[in-house]
Amino acid sequence: GSFDLTFDTAGAYTGSTPDPAVTSAIDFDGATAQAIALDFGTPSAALGDGLGRDGLVQLGGATSVATLQDGFGAGLLSSISVEENGTVVGFFNNGQSRPLYQLALADFSAPDRLSALGNGLYRESVESGTATLVTPGEAGLGRVIEQSIERSNVDLATEFVNLISLQRSFQANARVITTSDGLLNDLINIVR
Q1: Is the confidence at residue 173, as pLDDT, over 70?
Q2: CA separation (Å) from 11 to 8, 82, 110?
Q3: Which one of 6, 30, 63, 144 is separated from 103 by 20 to 30 angstroms, measured CA to CA?
Q4: How many CB atoms lie within 10 A of CB 73?
Q5: Separation of alpha carbons 192 and 178, rounded Å
């Protein structure tokens, strides 16, 4: 927008058209609209001293514009953090942080009936029921732990020992069957 600023003969600010205190929303690309209010200072008539030097002045000499920023400069997302309740917090390079997203956990009436897709992925099925979304840390579903990987709760060494034991049992049973088959063949040959 544009403003017409007026000054008296002493260089004191006397007002502007339109009133800069009127707040208007300004749209920025990639961000939500922000309300901006301009403050050029108190007009000299309101100060009563006739000087009105608490804001903008127009004097014969070099001029400069000084700003008082009551907000934060633009910032780029530099990192994220995930809290135990599933809130994804973004940290920006201007020193600000803000919640960006809320993760949810899904609960099923029959989780063992989910359809396995492979690679640790599952899909809702008719038998599993529909998903009930819950905030992490509520309804006994657990919480989110940042920078950790959930691994299997299987003891790999124990499972290998069990596998070798089962393999040996299978081999022993196969030998019993082979021996029984040999004995039956010998018995049939003796009878002839």
Answers
A1: yes
A2: 5, 55, 79
A3: 30
A4: 10
A5: 22
